[in-house]
Design goal:
It is a single chain. The protein is of the alpha/beta class and about 270 residues long. Helix content is about 15%, strand content about 25%. It has helices spanning about 80-90, 145-150, 155-160, 190-200, 255-260, and strands at about 5, 15-20, 25-30, 45-50, 65-70, 95-100, 125, 130-135, 140-145, 170-175, 205, 215-220, 220-225, 235-240, 245-255. The chain has a 7-stranded mixed β-sheet. Strand 5, helix 1 and strand 6 form a beta-alpha-beta unit.
Length: about 270
């Protein structure tokens, strides 16, 4: 699928269009880009990930949205107090629904029987190889556990996905990244995960783990977004449940970093091919 990078007027906005007339997501990558008003008939999703105990550095208030997600590693090196602090922090934010998954650092390194995700009881839904519906049934979300990611075995997720009707799942969450040929070093992740997404035709896959590869990749009809919040800014995505497609992605990257990456063979090069 061809993706073209377009610079508008003052070159401060970047939009992405594809060679399909019925699929034209708008992608905003510059820090100077403002989050646009929400279009009709879309749900707005706000993503964080890889905060590693630095959630208190994220500017408040968070962007408005229907659901707040955190895609793993709220802890830094297995520090339970980071998870406890983060759970209290997201509870203060006025989202009606919150979803979290675990990452490789959200565990007690010395005692595997300690479940850090219990800290989110009554605060957020924890997805571990499960599928749920949110926003009154408008959005169907699947979440892979860190155990599945670490073992690179998504059998449990596949089993749950098969229990839903075809093309029913809108969004897959994982901590680890997929393998995307030609995506650059930061996108050489799990081939099994990439295959899972393609086998089930999931329109949106969001993940983190590789901090420096924050950004967007379009693989067929699937929009893949690395939402790692190393720069302390959320990613905002507008998704159309009726059309099963992403309409807008606000994924700000520091300008100096963005320009450097655009000049290399990286995960952002797809936008200028």
């Amino acid at each position: 699928m061809l993706i073209v990078l377009k610079h508008r007027g003052d070159a401060k906005s970047i939009s992405v269009t594809t060679n399909r007339d019925d699929f034209q997501p708008k992608v905003l990558l510059r820090q100077s880009d403002l989050i646009p008003p929400r279009a009709n008939k879309v749900v707005r999703l706000v993503f964080l990930g890889d905060t590693h105990g630095r959630h208190d550095q994220i500017p408040l208030p968070l962007p408005d949205g229907d659901v707040l997600f955190h895609l793993g590693d709220s802890a830094n090196r297995g520090n339970l107090s980071d998870v406890q602090s983060f759970a209290k922090w997201i509870k203060m934010n006025s989202f009606k629904e919150r979803i979290v998954i675990d990452g490789n650092q959200d565990h007690d390194y010395n005692n595997s029987h300690v479940n850090y995700m219990n800290e989110f009881d009554g605060i957020a839904r924890v997805l571990r190889d499960d599928v749920i519906q949110v926003i009154g049934g408008q959005l169907t979300v699947a979440g892979a556990s860190w155990n599945s990611c670490e073992t690179d075995n998504y059998t449990a997720v596949r089993h749950r996905l098969k229990q839903w009707d075809d093309n029913r799942v809108d969004l897959l969450l994982s901590h680890i990244h997929p393998y995307v040929q030609g995506g650059g070093k930061g996108w050489r992740g799990s081939q099994e995960l990439a295959k899972l997404v393609q086998d089930f035709g999931i329109p949106l896959h969001c993940f983190g783990h590789i901090h420096y590869s924050r950004g967007v990749y379009q693989l067929g009809l699937t929009t893949m977004v690395n939402v790692a919040s190393t720069w302390d800014q959320p990613v905002v995505i507008d998704y159309s449940p009726s059309r099963k497609r992403v309409e807008m992605i606000h994924c700000p990257i520091p300008n100096e970093y963005l320009e450097t990456r655009l000049g290399r063979n990286s995960h952002l090069q797809q936008f200028i091919k």
